[in-house]
Amino acid sequence: MELLAVFLRVSALLLCWSAVVCSELPVPENVTIQTLNMNYVLKWDWDAAQAPDVARGVTFTAQYLAMFKKKLKKTKSKQDWKTLCESTPEHICDFSSVQLHYLGVWLLRLRAQSGHMVSPWVEKEFCPDRDAVIGPPSVVNVTPVKGLLQVAITDPLTFTNSSMKEHLPNMYYFIEYWKKSSSTQKPNNLTSSNNLVILPELESWTWYCVRVQSKDNYYKKTSAFSPIYCIQTDGQIPYWQIVLYFLLSLGLSFLVCLIFFMCSFRAVKVVKSTFFPSVPLPSHIQEYLFDSSTSDTPRLLSTEPEMEICSDRLDLLPSDPEVTEVPEIILEVHLSPETSQQSRRTHSRHSSCDSGVYSTEGSGPRQNELGEVREEKPGRKIRADEADEGVQDVSV
């Protein structure tokens, strides 16, 4: 009996000593669960001043367990607890990936450890349906429709991008809207469980601002408001504006057509005046360009060399028997060096031909009729003294 008593005392001392050794580390402080829809994040604080010797080597372990299992006998086994964050130096542990059932009740526990020293467990009871916060609509689209505003609402999303209405079937939306220009006016509001809402009793061509929040009445959950969306309503266009727009478009079309016609007419006129001038060429130039003896094709250059004759003055006197003196006719002839020889032959040929006034038959030499004819170099003068009665026949 004495030996048994001694053994029990030693066992009690060992248990007390082990409990003291294991509880050397302080427990984490301010353990909270931050939630949004089905995102669950466990956070805590650690005061390094409570254990300065091991402050740098402290890690944390977080576990979870369904509440109903704790009430059963088999939950006394440590294997029922599932570890999520083990020996992490961070002060945060994300339980979103575990996908805890939204309507279940769970136990979350946390402890600190450093080597063989550990702190007691800190347990936290958590029910997502009761404790989790719902978020505002993920997307809100506001569009004008026939003088009103149509609000399209997208449900809050879970961690797997599914709708929160799958877990909160009674969730609805609270919509506030007001005139943008009126800051003191009390905003209008309405509630709807539909995802497509038409805001009634709005003024046409007026700016309105809209914001939406999610609500569930079972645990009185209310989300934050969504961002504010401002848009202008439309309306039916008055008939006078339609007529005015039609007249303006008609006038503008007429002005464009008129400008196009004037530019086209001006361009045609310029082309016509350039290629078909209204002032005709002189007749002697037209006769020169169109020689009927050869062809009707205009020619600008002659194939035979001709001499250029420039006359400053030419006086023709009528036939008068009383006139004894014949006025002097001065012709100025310019010959190019290349055509000098040809001009001599041409002059001899013309002198021997009939001039239309005298015939070469039965007449004397041309020199007796014309008097003296002298040919000079290019740029010099030719004098012709004619003895006939007021008739001159000058050949060059």
TrEMBL record:
GO terms for molecular function: interferon receptor activity. Residues 133-236 form the Fibronectin type-III domain. This is Fibronectin type-III domain-containing protein. The lineage of its organism: Eukaryota, Metazoa, Chordata, Craniata, Vertebrata. Residues 353-366 have a biased composition (Polar residues). Pfam families: Interfer-bind (PF09294), Tissue_fac (PF01108). GO terms for cellular component: plasma membrane. Residues 386-396 have a biased composition (Acidic residues). The keyword Membrane applies. Keywords: Membrane, Signal, Transmembrane, Transmembrane helix. InterPro entries: FN3_dom, FN3_sf, Ig-like_fold, Interferon/interleukin_rcp_dom, Type-II_Cytokine-TF_Rcpt.
